[in-house]
Amino acid sequence: MQTKAKETRAMASIAVSMAGQGADRRVAPRDYVLRSCDIVISLLALMCFLPLMLVIALAIRVSGGPGPIFFAHRRIGHGGRYFHCLKFRSMVSNADETLRQLLATCPESRLAWERDQKLRNDPRITQVGHFLRKTSLDELPQFWNVLVGDMSLVGPRPIIDSERRRYGRYFASYTLVKPGITGLWQISGRNDVSCPSSEHSAQLAA
After folding, report:
1. For residue 186, how far is the Cα from the chain centroid?
2. Distance from CA of residue 115 to its chain's centroid?
3. Which residues contact 71 (CB under 8 A, 6 or more apart)?
4. Which element (helix H / strand E) includes 57?
5. pTM of the full predicted structure?
6. What is the pLDDT of residues 165-186, one digit of tens each?
7. What are residue 73's DSSP bridge partners?
8. Nearest by Cα to 179 from 195, 196, 167, 194
9. Looking only at Cα atoms, what is the longest distance across the chain?
10. Which H/E stretch holds residue 94?
11. How far apart are CA 90 and CA 55, in angstroms?
12. Are 198 and 170 in contact (CB under 8 A)?
């Protein structure tokens, strides 16, 4: 639990650093430049990655069993508004039922889930899903989120409702900018990131 709290504080600290930059340019002309870059790059990315995305969609359909190709997860975005963050589906279609059965029959898994909301050997993840998550290819559909304005190419990781309380007083700062496909949290080690000092966060945001 302590490790999870440190990770959350680290992500919050990074989000605050980025939000501080966003607060300084609320109506700056470069906002339009950045939005234009988001549109152009995301559109080009969708066009370039379309063949690969079709292959991934086919692989999910063939080996992932029945269910949708995409998974739309409700996240908190700019201004505290909700949006559906898109990913390729990496889990079985009955993931919720599978999780309930596992937690009811395996005490170790239940403790791990209550502590981290994650499972080391998650039976819900398909074989294709493991590959997609390892390579981050499951996040390719998020270029659509960028194109329509829900996300930006660079920004803090989009969070879910259950993480909101962990951000505490930092949540208001988090909502000042759009979440991003990539950002300081991703390039700093993702789940392996430790709680940085304020000085380190400032250096990352510089």
Report:
1. 9
2. 19
3. 86, 87, 88, 89, 90, 91
4. helix 30-63
5. 0.72
6. 878 888 888 888 899 998 766 6
7. 85
8. 167
9. 57
10. none
11. 14
12. no
